[in-house]
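Homework help board

Subject: predicted structure for assignment chain

Our instructor gave us this sequence and asked us to write out the predicted structure in token form, then describe one feature. I got the tokens but I'm not sure how to describe them. Can anyone check?
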Amino acid sequence: MPTFRTIIAAGLAACGAIPAAAATLFMGSYPDQLLIFDEGKAAVTGKLKLDTGLPTSMVLSDDGKRIYVSTITTSGIEVIDTATRRVVSKFSLNDGTTRYRFWGGAADPAGRYFYTMLTKFEKAADRYIVGKPSWGVIDLKLQKVVRSAELDREDERSGGGWRAAYKVSPDGRFLYAFGEKVVIIDTATLKVVDRIDLAKPEGTGLENVGFGGAIDTIRTPGQFVSLFNASDPYIHNKMFGIARFDLNSRQFDFTPVGPAPDNMAGLQMTPDGKQAYTVVTNGKLGNKRCEFWHMDMATSSIVDKAEFPCRSRFRFGMSMDGAKLYIYGASYDIEVYDAKTLKLESTWDLGNDTTGAGMVAVE
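My token output:
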């Protein structure tokens, strides 16, 4: 993750004092590996084989030292050391008679527990017994599920489903699941303590962009900042805006920006926090239209828009210095756009088909 040193360096680079350092990008790839991509060289410089299978999600720890990769083949978790670019821990939850299905999650600040939503499958003599969706706690040291609690019925959809985004509060007391509502869970009891009627502005036109494994170009300790949808209490018109959550106090403020389009990606901010970008899609199939929206964070207003060629499925990210926007995923390349002009700058060949696991950037 960007440190204060990263942010200061980016600011000096913008003034011409020093060159901006290129980041290393980690991306999931078929059938069982992570690509290591050097932004400066615009090339894949390494690959990490994942013994537990196909990567479906990547989450960077708050200190930037670990990447938690979840895999679907054997319901595994592999932990990557960002400094050495090596796998330091790996295990599968599945065994001969029990299987699990989960999609991403969040580690606690100490890196001991991994919180997620999961479903358990037990093999009987003549069938599999499918458990109910549950909040789950995976002990990364013991390498197994140590606690679980069934979801309340109202949270089976509002909890976000398989592709929810998760955050753990800095004190480790609360888990936040960002889905059709923001669901707040006490990590000690796995009981829901609050629900907030804000939905993340994503739909089927985009593939889980802007949360979880997506690039986080700025982080404020103890806060989660992103785009959300809300509706007014009278005629229920949907609007989108920027919400800032305090992960300790469970308080938030929501600043409306405008009418909600069909689908939106999450927020990508420049290192100084002054500018932000999202991707918007309207229409479907042959009528589908994709645009970059450039927003000023001080005024929470849209200052520029630009259309770009749609893909059937894609993800959206930003370089760590905030100079480039990325369109990638379900393909063998990354389309690179200039953040100032919103025009296509180049296309980087990956040589591998990437998964929906997203992208994580480190120094």
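Reply (TA_rk): Your tokens look well-formed. For the description, you could write something like this. The CA atoms of residues 31 and 54 lie 6 Å apart. That's the kind of observation they're looking for.
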